[in-house]
Amino acid sequence: MPTFRQFDPLVVNEYVTDTYLFEPHRHTYFEIIYIAHGKGVHLLNNNFIIYEDGDLFLMSPDDQHHFEVDEPTRFVVVKFTDDYFNFSNPSPNGLPIIPQVIMQAHALKEQKLGFDIKAAKSLKTAMQAITDYKDSTDLSTSGFVYFQILSVFGLIQQSLRIISGLHVASGFDKHQLLNYIHQNIYDPQKCRIDVIASYFNISPTYFGAYFKRNFGVSYRTYFHQYRWSLIEKRLKIGKLNNKQIAVEFGFSDESHFSNYCQKIKKQRALDQ
User: Fold this and answer.
1) Is residue 2 assigned to a domain?
2) Same structural domain for residues 178 and 147?
């Protein structure tokens, strides 16, 4: 079983297991988990995310998670406290990366980060370099390790920009559109048709036709189906009450949320 020194600014560990060694838990530190190889399911904040070789997960304080291992998995774990990035490693001038902020991004809790071939190779190399230094006595103050971790966050930030739809200069793209919706599903105002159309600099009419043509359903149908799939997970797991779910998904109050649930369930019953 791996051992973790909870109060060090930085701890790195790796292990292979066919049974995850920890019960569902929260912690007070930040944690990066890289899947060097293996398959299974990551339960993160009431979400079930299938994992495989090369996947990367980030947990911030108060996140709750657990892994269900389907095939023997090699986990590479990097844990750090707030002190690590304020401790003895000054950030490079002008580097727009604040790891603690990045790790709290909501998109990271609902879906996996996507890396292209070059980014996936760079991530693997950086994680291996970090792992090679895991037993160093100066791990927390090593400049080499520090910059390897920053390079990982650079790759994460690049992926998050794509998820949030910031790279739209090359034109309107259906993947960017879905990423925008998934990122903002918790804020109904940002998911209004006129707001999305304005964001991508297209007309609302074109948006509606484009969505139906590319996804086979209307935008409103897709929005409610996706939103309901996330809500339904939380209801089934039972860790959150209706009021907490209502707040998370931007409902005006618990009554509004209950009415929404009843309406969706009634519609689904009619569709069957």
Assistant:
1) no
2) no
